[in-house]
């Protein structure tokens, strides 16, 4: 492909660089579309679809070509070229490009993005919002979403994940620390007594259909299960999860997701985990 001997948007007239009336408008539209949120690929596809020529007889728009135009300072009026893009628009384009590149480099599969439970404010209990700023010494900060609260806590992702892992490891080693109502013998209900009597008579008489007996016994088990307090069942499941897990050397998104339903931040940047049984536990 033959290279242009003058930037897109300009032309020679009697040996003088002047604005190209069509290309100038295309360039301004590219800038507007980019600032409006369109991707480089979307802009290039639109130009190709509309058969906009990059140079006479050649279309061939792509992301790299669009970006080179948006980064070219000659459109500010540098180097003897007439200005097409004003300084404020050019600056806005560069800021938007920087922010897009920063977001593109974020690994959405990293451990911090596996934390989907609410992180709660120590002052008002409202959910907090994480912000990342690479310009700060502590690049992560947590802001309370309650506008009247304005609590801000500095806590890096590394420290947050380390504290979570340490608390989970405490429970891996000592699952007995998980609290829950003890399973006690409960007084049978009228329905249970009725079923128990029917089952007893069927077994004593030895005259019964096997399937009918099994059905009544399963019905009895179901009734007993429904009477078990939910806190008992949750505590038993939590203990089982921690007992079956080995010591953690790194953050485990699976164990965390199976056992925790909230994180409480403290003003000293320590944390507590709220387990599924409602128990709050911090690092000892």
What would you say this structure looks like, in words?
With 284 residues, the chain is an alpha+beta fold. 44% of the residues lie in helices and 13% in strands. It has 9 helices and 9 strands. It has a 4-stranded mixed sheet. Strand 4 (128-132) and strand 5 (140-144) form a beta hairpin. Helix 2 (40-49) packs across helix 3 (63-71). The protein is elongated. It starts with 9 loop residues before the first strand and ends with a strand. The relative contact order is 0.10. The mean pLDDT is 85.
Q: Could you outline the blueprint of secondary structure elements for this entry?
A:
Blueprint: E1 10-13, E2 16-19, H1 21-35, H2 40-49, H3 63-71, H4 87-104, E3 119-120, E4 128-132, E5 140-144, E6 152-154, H5 157-173, H6 190-205, H7 210-226, H8 230-244, H9 253-259, E7 260-265, E8 271-275, E9 280-282
Parallel strand pairs: 3-7
Antiparallel strand pairs: 1-2, 4-5, 5-6, 7-8, 8-9
What is the number of helical segments per DSSP (H or I, 4+ residues)? 9
Largest sheet: 4 strands, mixed
Shape: elongated
Report the radius of gyration as a whole number of Å. 33 Å
**How many beta strands in the DSSP annotation?**
9
Strand content: 5-15%
Tell me the distance between the termini: 68 Å
- Across the major sheet, the strand order is 3-7-8-9
Overall mean confidence score, pLDDT: 85
Low-confidence stretches: none
| Secondary structure: helix percent | 40-55%
Order of helices and strands: EEHHHHEEEEHHHHHEEE
Structural class: alpha+beta
